[in-house]
Design brief:
alpha/beta, 5 domains, seven-stranded parallel β-sheet, 30 helices, DNA-binding, hydrolase, DEAD/DEAH box helicase, DEAD/DEAH_RhlB
DNA sequence: AAAAAAT
């Protein structure tokens, strides 16, 4: 412990000192509103002005952009009108767009309202709900009053309350107080005004009626056309990216060294091939051996953020790959850079020992891993009768209280791998203690998206409840009251996303000081820019020395920042033999003309099974969902521009099968489990190999078969080749045009051809 | 670019 913490602390100081600076910037954020309020005296109205002001500021910026965009748009119009029939994007709509542009600030303003509206919606039912019990309660009082009759002053007292209620009680009293009614009515317009918002809301919800507007909107939004236009430009972007690439190109002669790479690739399969027999022979030693390989991989991956630098690094990599020390960087508590190999050896021995333990109990079941009967039964109810490999590996060390890093590919059972032992640990730590009202949570699970947090809770909750422990979800986009209420009652395990957790933490409504087990799901993702610092602050709020568990399908050295500060001699696990050969996912890349893209997508999603389509931006995801719908294929979208209610509902629509096509941003890339998605379409190719792996992992789960189709243009072939190489995935590139058989095949319609 | 708080 002290060994780690001292050097770790030192590193943390080096690594995070600047980030503390960033932290102060966060504090500045807090101060801003205050400062703004000070700058602009007044109470609330200046506050509103404060909101308007940035918009006013933003508006000219938008105008500038739109002015620029107009030039590009005109070009885009020309391109589109040539490329496409004017079916969906009719000219009158385009012509109407300028009007829409004028509307934009308002619309964009509306959007900023929408979360607020949705928030209001959630509150209103509660208000009315809260009010009505009050009424009914009052009514129970009334009989008493009516019994007294002489108590009418009391009634008048009630009347005073009634207007306060919902003004309805005032009706019974109304006859005398019709002016009061008119007063009530004066309130109602406000309500009706709210209602006027609601139709807008419902209008928002029913986005499709809005679709009538949307051509305008989509056109209006400087975003969409720009974005869609960007698509057209993506070659340009990619071209822009190529400065980096072009930098690569300068190195592509170095890539000409790739024959060397390809040579390396031929070695990799050889390695993996060598591994498997060993793995098969003795799982765990093999496992440790595999790890020694993957650290190399992870090292390669760690180069990715360095992609810009890759040429150099990748060039340097090859010698390094053959070197063991880098492996140590991955496995070891990354302290002593000096004694790499010793560290490696030490770590490997430890891993090996534990791995063997896990392997010996693998066949035995969860009980033998140390889980209690209730938990084992709960797992069986969840369909987990016997442990998957990742579960067999991690349960015992987690119960021992060790910090654990674990990598198991998508759909390999990671949630139970940390969830079941976590519940067991908390249960043991609470043995003999009362579950006190208002007790502080003992465990924390962090996830990158709300949907994932929700899904994790769906798995953990039954396990926890089987032993009398309580969980609650803490994530944004929904009112706090219910979450805070649960915390006040007292829960044992909280599952959520960083933003709301930190929010409640800062509000003093969440006490993490008794959290002894903290889990980071999709841990590498949680270490990316924008996530890392909140996560660090949250982890720092947990009990000193709390156990840390980091899980991900693509766990790599990206988590080093957290490992350095928070983990002590972590055990590292991964599942042997997880490569493409053992995968149930088929990968295809269609090289298409951009002008065919929309129709090719229509053709692909026009099928029987559940299809998940990934788009790079929210706007494009939304546009595609509308496009499919217009083409007669029921589709919904999932992205961060939707309110949480709609996000949840749309995902549920796919899960329940009410729609078969979901178009999502990368919000759905990680962790989301829908049983039988058999086709994943990447309308936009991902930029990172990790994203590819996670997106494609939405299919082929639990041994089912699945297909991943990625659409690219010719310009992107090289980039795609490199990405697939990093992902260690082999996929054929197929030049595809409208009407090609491959589209029928991929959509499954070839079956009809066979029968016909 | 997206995601993660709310206003």
């Amino acid at each position: 412990m002290p060994k780690n913490k001292k050097p770790a602390g030192g590193r943390a100081a080096k690594n995070f000192e600047p980030r503390y600076g960033a932290k102060t910037s966060f504090q500045d954020r807090k101060r801003r509103p205050e400062g703004a309020a000070a700058d602009k005296p007044g109470s609330k109205s200046p506050g509103h002005r404060g909101y308007r002001a940035p918009e006013a500021d933003a508006a000219p910026a938008k105008r500038r952009w739109s002015a620029q965009d107009r030039v590009g748009r005109d070009e885009a119009h020309g391109i589109r009108s040539q490329a496409r029939g004017d079916d969906r994007y009719s000219r009158p709509e385009r012509d109407a767009a300028p009007r829409g542009r004028d509307d934009r600030p308002a619309r964009s303003f509306d959007r900023s309202d929408r979360p607020a509206r949705s928030f209001d919606r959630d509150e209103r039912p509660r208000r009315s709900f809260d009010d009505r019990p009050a009424r009914s309660f009052d009514r129970t009082e009334r009989p008493a009053r009516s019994f007294d009759r002489s108590d009418r002053p009391a009634r008048s007292f009630d009347r005073d309350q009634r207007p306060a209620r919902d003004d309805r009680p005032a009706r019974s009293f109304d006859r005398n107080d019709r002016p009061a009614r008119s007063f009530d009515r004066s309130d109602r317009p406000a309500r009706s005004f709210d209602r006027s918002d609601r139709p807008a809301r419902s209008f928002d919800r029913d986005q499709r009626p809005a679709r009538d507007d949307r051509p305008a909107r989509s056109f209006d939004r400087s975003d969409r056309p720009a974005r869609s236009f960007d698509r057209d430009e993506r070659p340009r972007r990619s071209f822009d990216d190529r400065p980096a690439r072009s930098f690569d190109r300068n190195d592509r002669p170095a890539r000409d060294d790739r024959p060397a790479r390809s040579f390396d690739r031929t070695e990799r399969p050889a390695r993996s091939f060598d591994d498997r027999p060993r793995r098969d022979g003795a799982d765990r030693p093999a496992g440790s051996f595999d790890r020694s390989d993957r650290p190399a991989r992870s090292f390669d991956r760690s180069d990715r953020p360095a992609r810009d630098e890759r040429p150099a690094r990748s060039f340097d990599d090859r010698p390094r790959r053959t070197e063991a020390p880098n492996r140590s960087d991955w496995n070891a508590t990354p302290k002593r850079s000096a004694e790499h190999e010793q560290r490696v050896d030490v770590v490997h021995e430890r891993l090996q020992a534990q791995a063997v333990d896990a392997a010996t109990v693998t066949g035995a079941g969860f009980s033998e891993l140390g889980l209690g009967d209730n938990i084992v039964r709960a797992l069986a109810d969840l369909g987990a009768a016997s442990p998957f490999p990742i579960q067999a590996a991690t349960v015992a060390p987690i119960l021992e209280g060790r910090d654990v890093l674990a990598r198991g590919r998508t759909g390999s059972g990671k949630t139970i791998a940390f969830g079941a032992p976590l519940v067991e640990s908390i249960l043991r730590s609470q043995a003999g203690k009362r579950r006190e009202f208002g007790r502080a949570p003992k465990a924390l699970i962090l996830a990158p998206t709300r949907e994932l947090a929700l899904q994790i809770d769906r798995t953990i909750q039954p396990i926890a409840r089987s032993v009398g422990l309580f969980t609650t979800q803490i994530y944004g986009g929904v009112p706090q009251a219910r979450q805070v209420g649960a915390l006040k009652k007292g829960v044992d395990i909280i599952i959520g996303t960083p933003g709301r957790i930190e929010d409640l933490l800062n509000q003093g409504k969440l006490n993490l000081s008794e959290v002894t087990v903290a889990v980071l799901d999709e841990a590498d993702h949680m270490c990316e820019l924008g996530f890392l610092e909140p996560v660090q602050r949250i982890l720092r709020a947990t009990a000193k020395g709390s156990q840390k568990l980091l899980f991900s399908a693509t766990l790599d050295r990206e988590v080093a920042a957290l490992v350095d500060e928070f983990l002590v001699e972590p055990a590292v696990y991964e599942v042997a033999g997880e490569d493409q050969e053992s995968s149930t996912i088929e990968h295809r890349v269609l090289v298409i003309e951009h002008r065919d893209k929309a129709q090719i997508l229509d053709s692909l999603v026009d099928r029987e099974g559940k299809t998940l389509v990934f788009a790079r931006t929210r706007a494009y995801a939304e546009m595609l969902a509308e496009q499919f719908d217009d083409a007669g294929i029921a589709a919904v979208a999932l992205h961060g521009d939707l309110n949480q209610q709609k996000r949840t509902r749309n995902l549920e629509k796919l899960t329940s099968g009410r729609v078969n096509v979901l178009v999502a941003t990368d919000v759905a890339a990680r962790g989301i489990h829908v049983d039988d998605i058999d086709l994943v379409i990447q309308a936009d190719a991902p930029d990172e190999y990790k994203t590819y792996l996670h997106r494609s992992g939405r299919t082929g789960r639990a041994g089912r078969s699945g297909t991943v189709v990625t659409l690219i243009t010719r310009q992107r072939r090289r980039r795609m080749t490199e990405l697939l190489d990093r992902a260690e995935i082999e996929a054929p590139f197929e030049e595809t045009q409208l009407g090609d058989d491959v589209l029928e095949e991929l959509s499954g319609r070839q079956l009809a051809d066979v029968t016909s």
